[in-house]
Amino acid sequence: MTGQQTLALADALTPPLEDGDMLAAIDLGSNSFHMVVARYTLGQLRVVDRLRETVRMAEGLDARGGLSPEVRHRALQCLSRFGQRIRDIPPQHVRALATNTVRRLAAPQAFLVPAETALGHAIEVISGREEARLIYLGVSHAQPPRPGQRRLVIDIGGGSTECIIGAGFDALERESLQIGCVASTRRFFPGGKLSKKRWREASAEVAAEFQQFASTYRALGWQEVVGASGTNKAIGEICAAMKLTKGAVTAEALPLVRDRLLEAGHIDLIALPGLSDDRRPIIAGGVLVLEAAFRVLGIERMQVSKAAMREGVLRDMLGRGSEADPRETSIDALGQRYGIDRVQAARVEATALRLFDQVARDWGLDGDNLRMLAWAARVHEVGLVIAHSQYHVHGAYVLEHSDIAGFSRQEQQFLAALVRSHRRKVPKSAFDALPDRLLSQARRTAALLRPASRRQRRGRCPARAVLAPLARQPRPAAHRSGRRARRHRRTRRDPGARRRLSRRAPPRARPPGAAAVTEASSRCHRPGIGPVQSVPSQGQRTDRCATRSSPTRTPPTSTVWL
Asked: Is pLDDT of 475 > 60?
């Protein structure tokens, strides 16, 4: 089944986007929480509301990955106010994304569960490179690049900095560094003290982070540089207020801004023109990171864009569920990169989707579950590139820890859980990484991929046996052991073994007074047929592991599961 056919089936289960529908994108940044509400009209997005609150999540993050109660309370109150604004928007039209600080939490679910309750919508955690892709998407749609030219986009957030080189609306290179305005200010200027010595030491350390990819970026090249997010915007306003530029940031203006910062001696005493009060505590870290980027990458001039990741999230929501869905492209790229047998994957996908069609209504599965099932079927053998033994375990690891464009961390964990459980024994921890709201859907979707891959792998399983593992009858209460268990396994592998055993010669006569009671019980591998009552016929040879009883005991009636 092709990707277009799968997409058509998923769209049939998902309400389409119509004119007049409202969309909302929420960015849970390390410094500020942003929300943009837009109306979809004639294929375009018209922004109707913007909300921003300074939360500074990165300030409450400790070395052990915990979040301070004060910052936690501040974040939940902000999300509660956001939730009131988008109360009437359907869940499928709202996407909330958490970034660096939530990624670094030791127990992210401890924050995400109450946060989703306060917001009233699900919250996804995205990787640094996925954040970079969305940033470039928002900037490129707000300021379309010239045809044939490459653009460098730099976004300095509260906890991380993203650098992207792209052409048109596609990101070519993406990098995310664990340095941001809030984190760098706390790390390099503890207590708020500013000095030239501390600045030199901090600048050398930050520059080393950019050196990791500087040669690759310079070799690729770019024609213009754009700065996104609030920190770059604030530095551009400072340069304009100091009469250094008309709003852009240049290599000549940055040292003058730095010198004005160091003259203050302390963060609380900074008095730069054009600097707002809420930016004053973190501006030193932002200037430090931007100056290092200019020096290492050789940047001379940077324009400032008002767009950022939240605008990119809105654009990405339009692409999802259409032919421009980036997740479809990413899955195809995975298959090509790891040499997956696409013919086999297509057979498994077709079988899984037929099973999905039979149970989707009763199990409450929607179009998103169908897409995840189809993508898991296409990459369920990705682990074979590592080793044939335990390839489902290797494949789950690859899917969970790779940077896959278009997927959030929860979506990658969903895919990994399906691949991990599609064969062999399913461990209890297979679905532990998923939030509670996805557990039921993940388990039911895995129950469809498992028999589909099993049928295509064996090739001779009857059609009626595909769904049998989903509703198989329970095993008999008595447990088999010893030779009886070995015989049971042999008859399951070879259906003719039971017939051959029945043709054997009758047993030799036993000594008088010894009544032999036999129980011939076996279970055929064919599911779907109920128990049949049977008694050993006279003269028929009984099982070697027959149970003996006293002469006065009545032979029991055996149950044969067919």
From this structure: no
CA 375 to each of CA 414, 437, 545: distance values in angstroms, whole numbers, following the listed order: 11, 20, 48
Structural contact between residues 411 and 376, judged by C-beta atoms closer than 8 angstroms: no
d(CA 431, CA 13): 25
Which ranges constitute the DSSP H helices of 402-481? 409-420, 436-458
- Burial classification of residue 356, based on how many CB atoms lie within 10 Å of its CB (0-12 exposed, 13-18 middle, 19 or more buried): buried
Residue 193 DSSP one-character state: B
Average pLDDT, whole number, for the chain?
84
Residue from 214, 282, 211 nearest 29 by CA = 282
Chain centroid, CA 356 distance in Å: 22
Tokens 């864009």, residue located = 305
Q: Computed from CA positions of residues 183, 185, 190, 191, in that sequence, does the dihedral angle turn out positive or negative?
A: negative
Give the DSSP letter string of 132-196: HHHHHHHHHHHSPPPTT-EEEEEEE-SS-EEEEEEETTEEEEEEEES--HHHHHHHHSGGGB--H
Report the phi/psi class of residue 321: left, alpha or beta, with left for phi > 0 and alpha for psi in -120 to 50.
Answer: left
Burial of 493 (0-12, 13-18, 19+ CB in 10 A): exposed
Beta bridge partners of 516: 548
* pLDDT tens-digit map of 110-121: 999 999 999 999
* Cα 291–chain centre separation: 34
β-sheet with 301-304: strand ranges across:
170-177, 161-167, 150-156, 224-228, 301-304, 249-250
Whether 313 and 138 have beta carbons less than 8 Å apart is answered as yes
CB-based burial label for 58 (10 Å; 0-12, 13-18, 19+)? buried
pLDDT in tens, 313-345: 999 998 886 777 899 999 999 999 999 999 999
Report yes or no on whether pTM surpasses 0.85. no
Q: What is the DSSP letter of 122?
A: -
Q: pLDDT band for position 552 (50/70/90)?
A: very low
What's CA 515's distance to the chain center, in Å? Answer: 65
Task: Report the amino acid identity of residue 14.
Answer: T
What's the rounded Cα separation, in Å, for the pair 358 and 253? Answer: 65
Please, what sign has the CA dihedral across residues 161, 165, 171, 173?
negative
Q: How far is CA 116 from the centre of its chain?
A: 17
Backbone angles phi, psi at 160, to 5 degrees: -145, 165
Contact predicate 166/153, CB 8 Å: yes
- What DSSP designation does 16 have? P
Strands 94-98 and 44-54: unpaired
SS3 content of the chain, % helix, strand, coil (to 5): 50, 15, 35
* Average pLDDT of the residues in 161-172: 95
How far apart CA 45 and CA 313 sit, in angstroms, is 12
Q: What three-state secondary structure class fits 533?
A: strand
CA-derived radius of gyration, the chain: 31
